[in-house]
Design a protein that fits this description.
CATH architecture of the largest domain: 3-Layer(aba) Sandwich
Shape: globular
Strand content: 5-15%
Number of strands: 13
Mean pLDDT: 96
Strand order of the largest sheet: 2-8-7-6-5-3-4
CATH topology of the largest domain: Aspartate Aminotransferase, domain 2
Number of domains: 2
Length: 380
């Protein structure tokens, strides 16, 4: 593995900790920590004297996110609290008819299942399609689309095993069938290329605290511009209107841009952190980020295969693999093994029926070796 262009220096993790949990909550790069420290110091010293500069940081964050997912314009980016909020904007913004169908997969994180199931009282039917590493899951999903299918909601990468879907294939199928396409991209934005235009995505969203290397409490929400007016709003306030700085206006109108989904005051603290984190990802380049992540997952997979009894639950097919590598050990309770690893300073998760490792592009090889060494010690 290469030296990551020296950008490992942007991270200052304890060398006694192997941090392999970016699919949950990521450490911040130093430039994000500096941005937050600088913002806090300025606020403590002079308050919001330079609020216009804060707005410039927010504008830059929209531009960063637009570049990361290739939206037509930064005006297509809404800054939301989290993925669940954005999913709810879609679920409760569309005008559902009794008998409308939504297709999801059988491996979705609860956020991308519960919100759709909550529409049952409107007569909306949720259908699950099984994903399988041994079959063409995309064709199974497409085959499940019928005359009442209104929307397909699926994660670009499944949180448990890291199973990666062919987003472009599904996007093309949805567009040709007039089915709305909603992609929960929390496990891919910041780790894998995602092009909302080329992939024909109608709605996508992601929190900032996973692969985007930012804080909790701030995420991104994209709506295809042609569909923005189709989402009925349920939150209103001073921030989501045109001419939002004119507090005396009486004849207000809803913002034409994605700001319409931001009803009130922005999270400026998190904005400064996420702008710095996304700037770093753009500096490295998302293609290089993705390649580096894959090289580290490949390295871990090769090392795990040398341990007796290890079964990889994540696909090793390059078209299906992601930054998530989940495994189990025959004869071992995965929850107990996860707890032992955490006690040994290997930060990971118990997901998808096994232990989940998720390195990022900067993760040093020494941290990977440390995780394997401590895993072997736990098994002994």
């Amino acid at each position: 593995m290469n030296d990551n262009n020296g950008l490992e220096s942007e991270f200052d993790l304890d060398p006694n900790v192997s941090y392999l949990n970016h699919a949950a909550v990521s450490p911040w790069p130093l430039q994000a920590a500096r941005a937050v420290a600088g913002f806090a110091a300025e606020n403590a010293r002079i308050g919001a004297q330079y609020y216009p500069a804060w707005i410039e940081t927010e504008t830059q964050l929209r531009d960063n996110l637009a570049r990361l997912i290739n939206t037509p314009s930064p005006d297509d980016i809404a800054l939301v609290k989290n993925t669940s909020e954005a999913l709810s904007f879609v679920a409760y913004g569309l005008d559902w008819q009794n008998g409308d169908e939504i297709i999801i997969s059988d491996q979705e994180f609860p956020s991308n299942r519960i919100v759709w199931e909550s529409l049952a009282d409107k007569g909306v039917i949720v259908r699950e399609v099984a994903l399988s590493a041994d079959s063409d899951s995309e064709n199974a999903i497409i085959a499940a689309m019928g005359p009442r299918t209104r929307l397909l909601a699926i994660s670009s990468v499944q949180y448990g095993t890291g199973y990666r879907i062919d987003v472009a294939k599904l996007g093309h199928a949805c567009r040709s069938r007039d089915v709305l396409f909603c992609v929960d991209a929390i496990q891919s934005i910041g780790a894998l290329p995602l092009d909302v235009q080329a992939m024909q995505i109608d709605f996508t969203m992601a929190d900032g605290h996973k692969w985007l290397l930012g804080p909790e409490g701030l995420g991104v929400f994209y709506v295809r511009p042609e569909l923005r007016n189709q989402l009925k709003l349920s939150e209103y306030g001073w921030h989501m209107i045109e001419k939002r700085g004119d507090f005396s206006q009486r004849d207000w109108s809803i913002a034409n841009s994605a700001v319409r989904f931001e009803c009130g005051s922005p999270n400026m603290l998190a904005t400064h952190a996420l702008e710095a984190s996304t700037a770093l990802l753009l500096k490295v380049g998302i293609d290089q980020v993705s390649a580096l992540i894959q090289s580290k997952v490949d390295y871990l997979a090769a090392q795990l295969k040398t341990i007796a009894g290890v079964e990889l639950l994540s696909s090793r097919d390059p078209s299906r693999s992601s930054g998530i590598l989940t495994f189990r050990v025959n004869g071992q309770d995965s929850q107990a093994l996860y707890m032992a690893l955490m006690k040994a300073n290997v930060v990971c998760a118990c997901r998808g029926g096994g232990v989940r490792f998720s390195p990022h592009y900067y993760t040093p090889e020494a941290a990977l070796d440390l995780a394997i060494s401590r895993l072997k010690s736990c098994l002994e």
